Amino acid sequence: MAKTSRVPEPALECVAARKRYGDRTALADATFSCPAGAVTALIGPNGAGKSTFFRSAAGLITLDAGRILVNGHEAGSPPAQRGTSLMPEQPDLYPGVSVWEHIVFVALLYKLERWRPAAGQLLDRFGLADRRDTLSHELSQGMRRRLALVMAMLRGAEMLLLDEPFNGLDPRNSAELRALVRELALDGAGVLVATHILGDVVRLADRVVILVSGRVIAQGTLAELREQAGLPAEADLERTYLALTDTHALTRLEDAS
Fold this sequence. Notes:
The chain is of the alpha/beta class. Helices cover 39% and strands 25% of the residues. It has nine helices and ten strands. Helix 6 links the parallel strand 7 (159-163) and strand 8 (190-194). The longest helix has 20 residues, at 237-256. The model is unreliable at 2-7 (pLDDT under 50).
């Protein structure tokens, strides 16, 4: 896991976010931040509230209480939506539409100016320059995710929300995608990655946020998480995650008794 000497300014701030669906609580006073120029991993069990948070941050659904700020703008506001890009687990690409046509669509939709040189550079950087005329349904899963990232970067997204980006990728494609995500962070973007693959978290993330039952139970660097769990320096992320989530489960049981 990469180490930083200080936490940069946040690209995204989540403050006491609450969201319920009927009797089910998806987010319960969730509070955390994602620094600009860094990769933050959001991890937790199925049903923890990760997808609800992503949709809220992208402005697709509205919180019941609390707020999410993207570069100081309320999630869902025009400035926040312009600066945020959500890449779902299955990228939203149009079958029968070529790689280049997807790029043109983004340029027209966001009324971009002088976008062609940047588009060419991004396609080359993401290894898609020779796939300009390939239809999206003919791309591999890894290439589809690369195209989704190109579309996000072309419109100048400053906060990238990546939902399970490594699912279904072979080791080579996973390594290539991790390298691209790191490059985006080094260029100054804030990146939030939701994943169940703890090995990718260790290799990629600067910080980790653990979400359980809609609540943030721990956040920080791996060293800080170990300290919170009371574990020695050699403890890996899996052991740390299990210790923190087990402690949380025990606390909830004690509170309920």
